[in-house]
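Input/output pair, single chain:
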Amino acid sequence: MWTPWTFLWVFLALLAGVALGFFIARKTMMNYLKKNPPINEQMLRMMMMQMGQNPSQKKINQMMKAMQKQQK
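Output:
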C-alpha cells in the first residue's frame, strides 16, 4: 500500500510547498516594507519633539543613516 516512492513524493511535495511558501512570504514582506517604510524623517522628528528634544536636520540625518545601516 505505502511504497517508498509514495513517501518520496510526499516528502518532495512538502519540501516544495515549504520553499514556495517561504519565497512568496518573503516577496510579500519586501513589497510591504518598500511601500510602508517602518520610519521616516518626519516620524523621527515628531518622536524627538515629543521627547522634549529640538532636533536639527543634521541629527535627523545621522539617525536615519544609522537606522538604514542597521537594517542591512
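The two ends are 51 Å apart (CA to CA). Residues 42 and 60 are 9 Å apart (CA to CA).
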